[in-house]
Amino acid sequence: MESRSRVLLLTRPLAVAAVALVGLSGCATLKWPWWGRGEAATSETAPTAVQSAEQAEASAATQAPPRVIEPEVERRTIKRTRIDTENFELGPWYGVLSVEDFGTNPAYGIKAAYHITEDFFFEGNIGRTTLGKTSFELLNPGSDPLNLGDERRLTYYSLSFGYNFLPGEVFIGRNLAMNSAFYLLGGIGSVKFANDNKFSVNFGAGYRVLPTDWLTLHIDVQDRLFESDIFGTNKLTNNLEARIGVTAFF
Amino acid sequence: MRAIVEGLGRAAGALAAMCCIAGPLVAAASESPAESPAAVSEAELTRLQLFVAAPYLDLHTGPGRGYPVTQVVARGESLDVIFRRTDYLKVRTARGVEGWAAARDLRDSLLADGSKFTLDLGDRSGYQTHGWELGAFAGDFDGANLVSFYGARSVNDNLKIELSASQYLGEQRSGYMLEAGITHVLAPEWRLSPFVTFGGGLFRVDRDAQRPNLVDRADQSAYAGIGARFYLTRRFFLRGEFKERIVFTSRNDNEELKEWKVGLAFFF
To answer: CB distance from B50 to chain A under 8 Å?
Structure first.
C-alpha cells in the first residue's frame, strides 16, 4: 500500500492534479453544511396569522393594484415547505427478444428513468433472456457446436435518452382521461453471452399511458445492434425486442 | 411518494376500467374525489400553499406545454402544491380543482407570509449552482469501446464528488471500473468551463486475450484527468474529458491507460 501511494504521487499527471486541486479557489467557498444544496428555497417558518395578514395588506398596498374584495382564504402557518418532486420512474418489464441465429425468446428486466424536462428523459435498462437453439442444433439434436453448454443466458443493459415525441391524452369512456406519450429512444450499452461482452447500440420507440399520476404502463419496441463473432466471422446483428412494462413514479 | 398513497384508490378504478370490467360502474366510482371536498388529510396540511400574484394562472390537463388549459386561477386565489414533475407542478385550487401549472408561471406567486415564492427552473443559473448531476458517456479506453455512467453531488459550485461505473469492451480485453473521485470546475459561471478531476477505485478484467489464464482479475486504480463542460439548454450540458489512469497490478509493472470520452449530462 505504501509503495502504491508513492507511485501515485510520483506519477506526473496525478501529482500535477493533486497540487492544482489544493491550490484551487473553490475549496475556500465551501459552506457548511454542504448537503442541503439544490432544495427549493422557500420560507422556513411562517409568522402568525395576524402578522401575515398585515404583511399581505402592506404588500398589496405597495405592489398590486388595489383590490375591491379581499379574498377570504385561510392562510396556513407552514413549518417547513418542500415540494415533493416525482421525476424518477422504476419498474419491471416482460417481453420477447429475438437474438439473431438463436430464435425469439422471453425476456424480462427492470427499467429506471429520470424525467429531465417535459420533453426528454434518461433511461437505464437491465434485461435477461435465454438463447434458443440455432438451426444447426435443431437439425442435429444433441450437438453443441458452439460449446455453450449451460451458458445460454444472455444479459444486457443499456443507457438511453428518450424524447417524448407525441405527448397527449387518451380517453376511456366519459369520465376517464389519461396522459400518454409516444416516445423515441436511443442509447448505448452492452450484451453479455457465451462468456463475452459486446458493445451495443439501441434505438426504438415506445408508448406510455398514465392511469394515475404515479403509475405508468409502457409498450416498447427496440432494436439492439451488436457485433457478434460467435460463428467465426464478425458480423453486425440486429436483435429486436418488444415488451410491456409497469413503472411507478417517485 | 405521497401521491402514490393517495392515488391507490383511483389506480384500482382506472385499471379496472382499462380491463373493461363493469365499465359504467367503475366510471361512476372513479369520479375524482377532488371535486367533493373530503376530510383534510395530514399530507394536505403540510402542503405548500401559494397565492397567485400574476393576473391569472393557467392550469393544464397534463405536465406539458401542449396540454389544453381547462382552468384559470385568478389573482389572489390560493393553491396547494401536490407534487412536481419536471418543470410542471400539480396543484389543487381552494375550490378543489386539480391541474398542472408551469413552474415558469408560478415565479410571481406568493407564500402564505407574503414573501415571494422561488424555485429552480433548470436554466443557466442552475447550471452554475445545482445539487446533483447525472450523465452517460461513450468513448475510447486504450483502444476499447467505453460505456460510462456517472453521478455527482455538489459540495459547492466548484467542487463535486463523483461516482462512476464504466465498462470497456475491446477486441483484446473487456471488463469494468467502479470509481469515486473529486472534480473541480474552474469557472462554473462560464458556459464552457474546464475542470480537473482525480480519484480512484476498482479495475476489473473479465477477459484478456493476451493473458487467458488471468488469476488476479480485480486491481486498484487511480486517475487524474482534465475536461470541459458546455451548457446546452434547460438542464443539459455536454461533458468531455481525458483521463490518465494507473492500474496497480499484482504483476511487476503497473499499467498506465489513457481514456477519453464525451457524453451528455444533466443537473437537478
So the answer is: no
Assess whether B83 and B162 both reside in one domain: no
Residue B92 shares a structural domain with residue B186: no
- Note which residues in 88-117 of chain B have CB less than 8 A from chain A: 88-90, 94, 110-115, 117
Q: How far apart are the CA of A140 and the nearest CA of chain B, in angstroms?
A: 31
Instruction: Name the segment(s) of chain A with CATH classification 2.40.160.20.
Output: 88-249
| CATH class of the region A88-249 | mainly beta
Which distant-in-sequence residues (6+ apart) come within 8 Å of A72 by Cβ?
none
Identity of the residue in B27, B87, B120 whose CB atom sits nearest the CB atom of A173:
B27
Amino acid letter, residue A116: I
**Which residues constitute the domain of residue B105?**
38-119
B80, pLDDT greater than 50? yes
pLDDT 10s digits, B245-262: 999 988 888 899 999 999
Amino acid identity, position A156:
Y
Q: Is the ipTM of this complex over 0.85?
A: no
CB proximity list for A54: less than 8 A, separation 6 or greater: none
Q: Which of B84, B119, B154 is the last residue of a domain?
A: B119
